[in-house]
Amino acid sequence: MQDAHVLLPDMSELLSFTSVVLAVFDGHGGARASRFAAENLHLNLARKFPTGESENLEKLIKKSLLDTFKQTDEDFLKKASSQKPAWKDGSTATCALVVDDTVYVANLGDSRVHQTFISDGHRQTLFWLIVAESRRDIPTSGEWPLL
């Protein structure tokens, strides 16, 4: 299996806010990249996450997610290129971070988070679906898509 996932229902000790981290990594070419991301993304997030209260907290959280994805990618590339022969594994990454009552979503590659409501006529239930999509229309500009 080349895929990995993380569900951390209480990150409050690491992030100093009531928080939950859910992430899915869709590996390809091997399992090392997805496993590495599953083991390290949340730790990098803890290092990059803003501390204390701020008027710009939402902006700082978004930046910390972007920096976390970049750092995790750089760390894996460094490790993969130092191997003999070099690892050729890769992985998409999709992360949902819940801080207090706000959900932040970040993704890299063709995995996405979809939000949907399901109603039984009396109540609605919110579902977050983390899925891998095979799409050719996703830009390859080298930018890190952050929703």
UniProtKB/TrEMBL annotation:
One of its GO terms (molecular function) is protein serine/threonine phosphatase activity. It comes from the Eukaryota. Gene3D superfamilies: PPM-type phosphatase domain (3.60.40.10). Residues 1-147 form the PPM-type phosphatase domain. Keywords: Hydrolase, Metal-binding, Protein phosphatase. Signal peptide: none annotated. CDD domains: PP2Cc. It holds the Pfam family PP2C. This is PPM-type phosphatase domain-containing protein. It comes from Neogobius melanostomus.
